[in-house]
Design a protein that fits this description.
2 domains; homodimer
Amino acid sequence: MSIREEKKQKTKQAIMDAAITLFSTNGFENTSIEELAKAAGVGKGTVYGYFQTKTEILHAFCEYELDQIHKELVKQANPNAPILEQVLTIYMTEFNHVTRNKEFGRIFMRQTVFPDENDAQDHLEIDDKYFQLLFPILKKAQDRGELRKNIELLHITRHFYGLYILIMSSWYTGRIPTEEVSSALELIFRQALEGLQPHSDSKSK
Amino acid sequence: MSIREEKKQKTKQAIMDAAITLFSTNGFENTSIEELAKAAGVGKGTVYGYFQTKTEILHAFCEYELDQIHKELVKQANPNAPILEQVLTIYMTEFNHVTRNKEFGRIFMRQTVFPDENDAQDHLEIDDKYFQLLFPILKKAQDRGELRKNIELLHITRHFYGLYILIMSSWYTGRIPTEEVSSALELIFRQALEGLQPHSDSKSK
DNA sequence: TGATAATTTCGACTGCAGTCGAGACTTAAA
DNA sequence: TTTAAGTCTCGACTGCAGTCGAAATTATCA
């Protein structure tokens, strides 16, 4: 690797590291780019050579975090557990990660759900990753007869996602305390499922 | 009314009017407070005498708009229509209003769902108004047997609200085009209802 | 190795949200 | 009508996100 590329690598990492530290310690809004630049040992303009906007720095870390979460999920997943259990596990794992840095999670959710015009594109990718995780799980559940066959999987993922956003929103606005998030999510997913699973009196399994 | 109060009234209205015009014409982000102040014929500082932040100006108009929407809804409501129809009417009316000023609606939704720490309180009121509108409708539907009796009304309102947020988000991020919002909403509400209404083979009405 | 081209770095600069205190206007009381 | 207290108005000022072009660093090739 050339000197140039090596330096770039290092600089970018230094900026990322500084960002993670400062955002976590002082919050996103309370961290100025100038401050961040100084902490990373570079000039302000340099930061903008690596990231186009302040939120983009957040996104970079978000993507990394989400990757971690997804990897973890894929590992610990139990593809034969009831669908409710699996879906709950997925979202609660995500929630627990977000919990560790509330500030961070709020901005991430906000940008994902109602992004600025400029960076609306970024998030389509993230969503893709989410759908790709959920699809096989739902497919299996459908095969097992836990979910109706006459509903598109995409609509089911959306349904769950919508309810997750709702609960997150309630949490961020203080309507649901942290310790009740799990039960609230379970309750509303259960509600959703009663409609998603086939109506039949022959509840075999 | 004293001269002073009269003046204040007028000034506030002038700011509001200028805001509505400029935000609608040039968008929220592209309108500076200085510009707004000039259009209203006052100094910059004066604007901040009436509103604490730029978003608060938006909120003032939002509240007004929502009031209009709610009044309209209460009038045109048909309390005996099927629950799906009623709920769809409510949200589509809201959506249509938002459509008229997309910019505006996006920021409103965003602030409502994932607000800044500072103005998290504001929105609890708005939500209350929403719940008070939905409650009697759902209660009636429950009495008619269209909704299960063993689910708290609050959870039902939340369920619908979550799905509405999801659809709005999909619209804002361009995943659902305007002309499909109505059918997407209907589809997902139908999904939700199949679980919300009692399971029974005696589908009388 | 030296000279030129390509890339990267930097901080002074622009534009805007929000603050603040000096001064203008309004009210109340004599 | 005068004056003192209370209230409102204003724009200069602060702080920060993001831009830009001049200077420094690295690559390329004779």
